[in-house]
């Protein structure tokens, strides 16, 4: 159990380091930043695990693992999985194309036409039409946007606004630019 507790401390350290450094440095690519923070907090995991007693000053004797190596390895796996989850959440909420569409619609504070959204995210190649041909219906199917059939205007639903607001909050916390 000590390994799990220490892994939670280490993942909190990685989150704080990522958010702080991301806010200060404003990197163009976040994966190297996340990797460095996960490695640094991983080193902290090893140090904290080595420097604390088996009961980590709070665990009852029944919760102390008989094999420190098993406890250490289990905690390390929990740490790595939680770190991976953090990176996945970041890219899903702040770096995903669908989320970027929702955020752009939220920033506009009014229903938008497909051409307005397409112009904002134009890649300048033949993929543009294909992307919107399936992306918009999927967002609609999941209840994130509604499409006015007469004017072809797209509007966020309550669920879409909620997700866009969370993404905007995360983008602000990480000091991200409009594009991600």
Chain-wise SSE layout:
Elements: H1 2-25, H2 31-51, H3 68-93, H4 97-108, E1 112-113, H5 114-120, H6 127-141, E2 145-148, E3 153-156, H7 158-173
Antiparallel strand pairs: 1-3, 2-3
Strand order of the largest sheet: 1-3-2
Poorly predicted segments: none
Mean pLDDT: 81
Distance between the termini: 37 Å
Helix content: 55-70%
Instruction: Indicate the proportion of strand residues.
Output: 5-15%
Number of extended strands? 3
Q: Strand count, sense and closure of the main sheet?
A: 3 strands, antiparallel
Our Rg estimate from Cα atoms comes to: 22 Å
Number of self-contained structural domains: 2
Task: Summarize the structure in short.
It is built from 7 helices and 3 strands; from the N terminus they run ααααβααββα. The protein is mainly alpha-helical and 180 residues long.
Protein described:
The protein has two domains: about 1-95, no CATH class; about 95-175, Arc Repressor Mutant, subunit A (Orthogonal Bundle). It contains seven helices and three strands. The chain has helices spanning about 1-25, 30-50, 70-95, 95-110, 115-120, 125-140, 160-175, and strands at about 110-115, 145-150, 155. It has a three-stranded antiparallel sheet. It is elongated.
């Amino acid at each position: 159990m000590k390994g799990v507790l220490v892994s939670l401390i280490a993942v909190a350290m990685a989150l704080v380091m990522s958010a702080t450094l991301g806010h200060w440095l404003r990197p163009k690519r976040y994966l190297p930043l996340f990797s460095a923070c996960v490695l640094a907090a991983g080193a902290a995991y090893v140090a904290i695990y080595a420097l604390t007693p088996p009961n980590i000053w709070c665990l009852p004797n029944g919760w102390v693992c008989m094999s420190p190596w098993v406890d250490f390895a289990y905690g390390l796996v929990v740490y790595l999985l939680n770190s991976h989850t953090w990176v996945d959440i970041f890219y899903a909420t702040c770096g995903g194309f669908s989320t970027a569409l929702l955020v752009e619609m939220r920033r506009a504070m009014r229903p938008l036409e497909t051409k307005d959204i397409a112009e904002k995210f134009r890649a300048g190649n033949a993929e543009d039409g294909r992307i919107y041909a399936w992306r918009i219906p999927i967002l609609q199917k999941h209840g994130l946007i509604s499409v006015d059939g007469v004017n072809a205007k797209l509007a966020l639903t309550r669920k879409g606004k909620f997700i866009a607001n969370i993404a905007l909050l995360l983008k602000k916390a990480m000091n991200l630019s409009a594009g991600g």
